[in-house]
């Protein structure tokens, strides 16, 4: 049985997701959000950017339905829209780690555990 192509609408939405991911600040923000909900000021500090700049990136990610918000008082907290995005970000970073020399960071713990068991 041949693999069927996704509907055009889903292809177009996937392209939009990759467009939104084509920015280093957004990847950093999404990576941080993969560990849980965070406030804008916390994200800005962690990525080393001005809060206004991070807010603009988050607004684009929200419009693309990649992040969700929760307001508490005057603070806005962001989280990933779903676990699929968490996997996309992790897989992209892990794929990038394989492009470099040596053992990728996400494999080092596995290698260390294997060496420990063999010793």
TrEMBL record:
Transmembrane segments: none annotated. PROSITE patterns: HTH_ARSR_2. Keywords: DNA-binding, Transcription, Transcription regulation. It comes from the Bacteria. Signal peptide: none annotated. Residues 6-100 form the HTH arsR-type domain. Gene3D superfamilies: Winged helix-like DNA-binding domain superfamily/Winged helix DNA-binding domain (1.10.10.10). SMART domains: HTH_ARSR. Pfam families: HTH_5. InterPro entries: ArsR-like_HTH, HTH_ArsR_DNA-bd_dom, Metal_resp_trans_reg, WH-like_DNA-bd_sf, WH_DNA-bd_sf. This is HTH-type transcriptional regulator KmtR. The gene is kmtR.
């Amino acid at each position: 049985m041949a693999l069927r192509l996704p509907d055009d609408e889903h292809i177009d939405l996937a392209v939009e997701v990759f467009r939104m991911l084509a920015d280093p600040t957004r990847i950093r923000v999404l990576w941080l959000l993969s560990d849980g909900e965070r406030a804008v000021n916390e994200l800005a500090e962690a990525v080393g950017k001005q809060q206004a700049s991070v807010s603009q990136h988050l607004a684009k990610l929200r419009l693309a339905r990649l992040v969700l918000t929760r307001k508490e008082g005057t603070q806005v907290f962001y989280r990933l829209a779903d676990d699929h995005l968490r996997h996309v970000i992790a897989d992209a970073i892990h794929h990038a780690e394989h492009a470099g020399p040596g053992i990728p960071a996400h494999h080092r713990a596995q290698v260390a555990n294997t060496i420990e068991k063999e010793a």
